[in-house]
Amino acid sequence: MDFNDTAAEASFRNEVRAWLAANAAPRVGAEDKFGDGLDHAAYLAAAKEWQARKAAAGYAAIPWPREMGGLGGTPAQQIIYAQEEARFLVPSLVFEVSLGTALPTVAMWGTDEQKQRFLAPALKGEDIWCQMFSEPAAGSDLGNVRTRAVRDGDDGGDDWLLTGQKVWTSGAHFADYGIVLARTDWDKPKSKGLTMFIMDMKAPGVEVRPIRQATNDAHFNEVFMNEVRIPDTMRLGAEDQGWKIMIGTLMQERFSLGEQFGGDLYNRLIALAKQVRWGGRPAIQNDNVRAGIVDCYLRQFGVELIVKRGMSAISRGESPGPEMAAVKLVGARAFQTGGALAVELGGAEGLIAAQDLGQQWALPQTLWLSGAGARIAGGTDQIQKNTIAERILGLPGEIRTDRNVPFRDLESG
Ligand SMILES: Cc1cc2nc3c(=O)[nH]c(=O)nc-3n(C[C@H](O)[C@H](O)[C@H](O)COP(=O)(O)OP(=O)(O)OC[C@H]3O[C@@H](n4cnc5c(N)ncnc54)[C@H](O)[C@@H]3O)c2cc1C
């Protein structure tokens, strides 16, 4: 296995580096982050402006064909771009769902009219998208989705009316459109009667309620739909084909999430442990602290190697395998345990006033607080372990007794 760039990849990396250097400020300290002091509206505007600039240079969706607004490049080039961009101060967490899952789903399953209408504006940063799959009673098993989509009128009109509730919808409070999974046939088994739609988030009947998190951010939301009218032209794929489309979206999500779990938290921990004194000596000299840092390093190094392995597969034109499940499983745990060590190093202040002590303290605390969510988002630890058990270790699959039962006959509540 060769983890080095090919000659073509190295040349692309140089090209990207030069473009980034001309268009963004480099990240000097590990703690630097884009947008300090910007309020939410100003941050959003800056993110849209950056996205437009990337689109103009062809870097908004590198592997996509040029007619769809991409560069006609390779998935490996997309990863190289992401690696290089991480060295610069640019906005983040605004277009991740749009580019990581929603738009690839529209590109894959959309009609020509849908692609024409939605892809280019979203790549240019004009529209933001969210993904509405999870519900209060449907998360790990999306076969339990109960949001109802019915044809308008007895004779089956050309519109659909959607009623139900989604939850944990990242970015719904600033999204313009979303892909939404709804049940269209209650007499078919759980995975068979689902259909995917494109929903205008500003349509009458849509109510978005942000959920405030322990970090004080409100990153995700509840979305209530009360007879939201969706024209049949906004159906994504065939009726009752939603399960297949959703599986494809989740495969995209796992890989795009995987890229976020590397990093150098261990370096930050080393710096903090040198700065803090415990019992009259630098905390770095404490055995438990050193063991905690080594643990974090090993987890993050493991993640880096698996991501490189996935990238190497992509570079050869293959798909990354089920081992990508381990990236999130190990990487999110590294955030949580490494962040906990930083909080412990900070003592009482580390817990209460980390935000006031500067980025070197605030960031690990944020990782600690969001680590639990990272272990759930995009498939929980247990679901990743099931994937590893079944698809890597070849252990028997879960016993499922509800596979062929009509959805309306399944117990609920
Ligand atoms: C930060 C964050 C962002 C998110 N963003 C979005 C978004 O944008 N759009 C969206 O649709 N959803 C989003 N989600 C929801 C996320 O996909 C679900 O929370 C996740 O799939 C788990 O579903 P659940 O919360 O319903 O838990 P459940 O599925 O109810 O699971 C509860 C517990 O049971 C365990 N469990 C369930 N099934 C099994 C099994 N078969 N074997 C072993 N254990 C099992 C789980 O591991 C978990 O510990 C987000 C979640 C988070 C935390």
Automatic annotation (TrEMBL):
<dbReference type="InterPro" id="IPR036250">
    <property type="entry name" value="AcylCo_DH-like_C"/>
</dbReference>
<dbReference type="Pfam" id="PF02770">
    <property type="entry name" value="Acyl-CoA_dh_M"/>
</dbReference>
<feature type="domain" description="Acyl-CoA dehydrogenase/oxidase C-terminal">
    <location>
        <begin position="240"/>
        <end position="393"/>
    </location>
</feature>
<dbReference type="InterPro" id="IPR009075">
    <property type="entry name" value="AcylCo_DH/oxidase_C"/>
</dbReference>
<keyword id="KW-0285">Flavoprotein</keyword>
<dbReference type="InterPro" id="IPR046373">
    <property type="entry name" value="Acyl-CoA_Oxase/DH_mid-dom_sf"/>
</dbReference>
<protein>
    <submittedName>
        <fullName>Acyl-CoA dehydrogenase family protein</fullName>
    </submittedName>
</protein>
<dbReference type="InterPro" id="IPR037069">
    <property type="entry name" value="AcylCoA_DH/ox_N_sf"/>
</dbReference>
<feature type="domain" description="Acyl-CoA dehydrogenase/oxidase N-terminal">
    <location>
        <begin position="7"/>
        <end position="126"/>
    </location>
</feature>
<dbReference type="InterPro" id="IPR006091">
    <property type="entry name" value="Acyl-CoA_Oxase/DH_mid-dom"/>
</dbReference>
<keyword id="KW-0274">FAD</keyword>
<feature type="domain" description="Acyl-CoA oxidase/dehydrogenase middle">
    <location>
        <begin position="130"/>
        <end position="227"/>
    </location>
</feature>
<dbReference type="Pfam" id="PF02771">
    <property type="entry name" value="Acyl-CoA_dh_N"/>
</dbReference>
<dbReference type="Pfam" id="PF00441">
    <property type="entry name" value="Acyl-CoA_dh_1"/>
</dbReference>
<dbReference type="InterPro" id="IPR013786">
    <property type="entry name" value="AcylCoA_DH/ox_N"/>
</dbReference>
<dbReference type="InterPro" id="IPR009100">
    <property type="entry name" value="AcylCoA_DH/oxidase_NM_dom_sf"/>
</dbReference>
<comment type="similarity">
    <text>Belongs to the acyl-CoA dehydrogenase family.</text>
</comment>
<keyword id="KW-0560">Oxidoreductase</keyword>
<dbReference type="InterPro" id="IPR052161">
    <property type="entry name" value="Mycobact_Acyl-CoA_DH"/>
</dbReference>
